[in-house]
Amino acid sequence: MSYFSGSKKITVGLDIENDSVKMVKLRHTPQGPKLMGFGIAELSPSNKDLIETRKKEISSAIEKILTEEKIKGKRVISFISGPSVHIWLAKMPSLPAEKLEEAIKWMVKEKAPFDLEETTLDYSVLDKVTENGAQKVEVVAVVAKNKVIREKMDLLKRVGLKSAAMDVASLALLNSFKVNNEWKKDEIIALVDIEANTTHLAIVKNAKLEFSREITFGGDTITESLRDRLNLSDLESAQKMRERYGILDEDSDKGTGKSSDEATDKAFRVSQIIKIELGKLVSELRLSFNSYRAQCLKDRIDRIALSGSLAQLKNLDKFLAASLKVSVEMANPLDKIPLDSKCKKKRYQQPQFLSPGLNIATGLALGKGEAINLSPAKERWARSARRTRTILLPSLYFVTLLLLLATGYDSLNQKAAVYEKELQSKKAKITSLQPKFDRFETLVRDLNRWNERYTSIIRLRESSIPWVPVLAQFSEAIPEKAWLRELSLKEGSTDPNQKKDSFILMIRGSIKWEKLVAELSLVEFIRELEKSPYLNDVRLQSTDRNTRYGHEVIDFSIAAHLPRREEISSSTYTSGERVERSGR
């Protein structure tokens, strides 16, 4: 139920992140929402671990926005997230409201990792569907620990605000996307909002939420890594460096290999550290996309809409598009929300102020708390009890109806028992055939694996790659205190535009950990490999701190494209053949 129905036509969305406070004020009219104002107040990176100091800073930031934007209302829509909040998307039988509510409570009780007595639960029906002739409803259910809700309520009370509604980020992203974007039928879009310490992921199809996840990664992850790896004095310096340099594009990356300019070299080092950290996010997004494909039986993600405080990092959209092989566009949450007639400030008309960082705050104001509301004032369960008592008032008509339903229920139970017996019989047959089916699947996999190996060997033999000069360059480029654990080859290309008859060389190894030295050695190794005429598109796949042989090391994985003979200049190739023959 909305707290803004009737005469309540103005909503304020409040997004409190670890690096900023954002607020959006909308007026809801018959012609659609109108923008009345918004504000963004940055928070100091140095205070993020000082809880009481941070609370005071957040309170001051909220008061500043309220004053500057002349927001007089005291009721706001906020959201909560983190490990104490869980979201489920499920299909349930089509039941009366009270029965559906009970069914959802039982589902959540089975899945929730904590006691429901200490939580608040709310749900919303997203759609009605028909499956195998049976009517079902698609629901989203959210449960959150009361402690987290109280903490957010207390923070709002410090500045005299009240929680009209408490939503979740994934639904806010969906609200914003529905108003500001167009999509094709059955198109699958991943909404990725990267904030200071959390990445919110919502996968939508036909304007409906199909998958939701929160990833523990944000701009602070990169900032802290830059401070530690570049030995900077504070987080402010690291954040300025992150914002100044960002990610170098491919042309700049290659240029730094031959430049001695100190600023250019610093930009390259910053870019490489950012890429290493973003590799963790890419891995989590791949895992999420695979989970979505498995759960929803979908085989693709059509595009990504990027938002959040980190979204404007230089070349982040290009990096994610290249890493995930999915087109990436920047979200503009206020693009199609016109200014209210009472709001004539010039700054609202300038496109540079329509930041993707306002995506969640805009979605909260658009949603009006209608789908999910975890605020204590909602008292959902008390209203349900009152409805139940009203339905059970004594009435001859209802007593007769209940008797008829009971008779039909007994008949359905008898049929269900027959169907259950048949079902168990068929399950037993399937179980008896399962070992044979498993053995057949194993043989098919083995056959496919050997066919792939045979084909790869044939193609490798035909490729005429000069292995001796390639390996000779490897031995010269390997840094001190580093060793290679694996060199492997597979068909394909690191670039989707390359022909399929190419090979990818996978390089896995370890570097003994020394602060800054290990990372810089790895960067230098990549730069040396990029100079090789026999390797193209050298990419760092992953890094991981580990312990090997009693030493702390950085394990790394690098992929490089091995070009075909015709892709290498004739002089280079002839030289390579001479080295190869002399090696023999």
UniProtKB/TrEMBL annotation:
UniProt-listed Pfam families: PilM_2, PilN
Spell out the protein name for this chain. Answer: Type IV pilus assembly protein PilM
Taxonomy, top ranks, is: Bacteria, Candidatus Aerophobota
